[in-house]
Structures are given as C-alpha cells and as structure tokens.
Amino acid sequence: MTHLNRLSTDDWMADNEMGHGFDMMVFDQGTDYSGPVRCSVVRKRSSTPSKKGFLYIHGFSDYFFQKEMAEQFARHGYNFYAVDLRKYGRSILPGQRPFEVRDLREYFDDIRAGLAAMHSDGIEEVILMGHSTGGLTSALYMQTDPDPRIKGLILNSPFLAWNIPGIKGAVALPVVRALGRFAPSITVRNSPDESYSHSISAEHGGEWFYRKDWKPDRLPDVDSAWIRAIDIAQKALRRGRISVPVLLLHSDKSAYPGDSHEAFANSDGVLNVKAISKAGQKIGHDVTDITIHNALHDIILSRPDVRAVAFTAIFDWLGARNL
C-alpha cells in the first residue's frame, strides 16, 4: 500500500454532480500496475454542529450519487462523506480502464483518504458503510487494518459470497482464480442482462437518474484478476472477526435472469440474499441481521416505502448502540 493520500486539489470545491450543499476533494494515490491513480471524496455537512461522521463506499460499476442518503444522515446529525474509489466515477483518469483491481486492499488507501478528509474537518467518530463489493471491501478493511475512530459498520447487500450455482461455481472459480495470479487480464464475460439496472433507472420505469458512463446499465466484463481479488477477500473474512458492531442489511429474496420486471423491482437482482445472510452472520461478534422486504440490491435505491423502512432500521440501530 502506498499510503500517499496527497491532495490533488488545494481545498474542497463544489461537487457539480450533486449540486448545492455538496463539496468534493481529490486525492493523489500515486501509481499502480496501470499508471497514475486517484480517489475522490464527496462531503455534505450536518445540518447541526457534530463531530460524528458517516463514510460510504460504493459497489462495483458504480459511484456515489445517492443524494437522499446523504441528506438523511445530515439531518440526523452526521457529517456525510463518500468515496469514489480509484478508477470509478469522479476518480477515473483519461485512458484508464474503469473498475480494474487486483487486490481489494488497494482500496484501503482510498478509505484512508476519506478518513483523512474527515479528520481535517474535526470528525472524531465514524460509521463506515459499504454496498456490494464496497461492503466486502469495508468488511475486509475492518478485519485487517481498522481505524480506531470507526465505531460501527453498516453493510448494504454486501458481496460476501458468490452467486454462482452448483458445479459451475465449484469448478470455474478455482480455475479463474488461478489464472488471475499469472494472467490477470484474461476477460471473464458478464451476463448481458439489464434487468437490475432497469429497476432503478428513471429511463426504464425506476426512480433514479445517474451517469451511464460511470454506472452502465449492463455490467462490464471483468478479468481474472478481479475474480481472484473478490474470492481472496471473501475467504479472508471467514478467518477473522470484526470487532465493532455490524448492521447487515439485505432483501428478502433474489431475482434472476428471465424473471419479470416486477420481480426485479422487488428483489435483489444481483446477489443471493440467503448467502449474504449466512456469510454475514459469521464476520463479527456483534452482527445484527435485518431483512428489508421487497428491497433492491442497493437497498437505498428501493421504492420510497421500502427505503423508509431501511432508514428506520439504520437509525434505530445507531441509536440503540449510541453511535
């Protein structure tokens, strides 16, 4: 790890993607196997003076655009911060291959950049939240090298287990993982199905507008190194325990290619929710496992009544633990 976290900008600047009330800062993270890398931190200050902060880590083929989530935390007295990881969203550099990673620990410096920005703002207590691969990365960070200021971890449909059925997963995963070590750039095709993205995009009957160049409707192909990085991280979590309280959130059911639009609009259309729950209950000594009925993969993007239940669960859990 480089531990550079050098500012690429002199100070906070307005975040044009989110608009009024949101700032951003860019951190130079040195170079890796593909060239220069950077990460971006977005901020929305609490509506009341507070030394508490909330740090959000997005998932694969994603970036931070969940404005309502930031506003919810700001209204509840938390200064809100989100990281666009290296090679994602605001952090993509010209000519860079988006989403490329060979070890999820590469993202630890990006989490540290978020924490550094929070420290400069006088934030003393932090809640870390990760969605999907961001949840896996956040959990791995809390198991491996946690910052003592982080007092709790919230996981929104974390990618803690593969959603590959039966013999296909048992045979294919070890082969691709081995290839990822010696031939990291071999392409692994993703399903062309766009059902999940259509359940959230306002262009297809969903509720949300976002940049399709940063969050494409069709999941991009990955490479063998990405598969290896995910598999290693998932296995590492089985060998240790997270010391802070964990809130594990997931839907009550999953949807799969060929299911109806209605099914995808009320389910996790990416991961297996039973596998999330099973793996998630084992990652710490204090794990609260809550099922959010009819939730999407990104629970915060579910329809209004569903995400209202999720926000209530989050703030009740925080309150019960005085976090």
What descriptors fit this protein?
323 residues, two-stranded antiparallel ribbon, 31% helix
What can you tell me about this protein's structure?
With 323 residues, the protein is an alpha/beta fold. The chain contains 9 helices and 12 strands. It has helices at residues 67-75, 108-120, 133-144, 166-182, 195-200, 224-237, 261-264, 273-280, 304-320, and strands spanning 6-7, 13-14, 23-32, 35-44, 52-57, 79-84, 125-131, 150-156, 187-188, 222-223, 246-251, 287-292. The strands form 2 sheets. Strands 1, 2, 3, 4, 5, 6, 7, 8, 11 and 12 form a 10-stranded mixed β-sheet that branches. The longest helix has 17 residues, at 166-182.
